[in-house]
Amino acid sequence: MTWTVAREPHDSPVAAALWRAYYTEVSDRWYQLHENRSTDPEELEREIAADTGEYLAPPTGALFVARWAGEPAGTAGVRLLDPATAELKRVFLHEALRGRGGAALLVSAAEDAARALGADRIVLDTRGDLVEARSLYSRLGYAETAPHNDNMYAEHWFAKRLRQRLC
């Protein structure tokens, strides 16, 4: 079995299904941790619909889908925040496929896209309970930084230089 990673339209059925899986997992994890319950189904539908991911569309964004043995397994997206800074978004792999190298491939594809968009650095935010994500980012050379946004659920912010500065 092998991984493939390719660009995917942000609004494709595959992207929508993976967004639903991603959001359901992180939302349920938050509610289980803080309120000992799953996400209310109406809230889940409302929040999934509210984030269409259009910021992951060209010309200033990109979405990638990883496939394991041909089946959609995860995503990573990138968008430009300004001409020199990109943001990593929607990094997700189905739980059963974690630990097999797919997340690193997705992040690498997003970093390459960020470079192609002209970014010198890439940033992201995540939560404290998403320990797998924090471990991945550290392993891939991301360093914790001061907050770069006011995302109410973010507890950790990371950045990585994409290009060497010339003196």
Automatic annotation (TrEMBL):
Keywords: Acyltransferase, Transferase. The keyword Transferase applies. The keyword Acyltransferase applies. This is GNAT family N-acetyltransferase. InterPro entries: Acyl_CoA_acyltransferase, Bact_Acetyltransf, GNAT_dom. It comes from Streptomyces macrolidinus. It holds the Pfam family Acetyltransf_1. Residues 17-163 form the N-acetyltransferase domain.
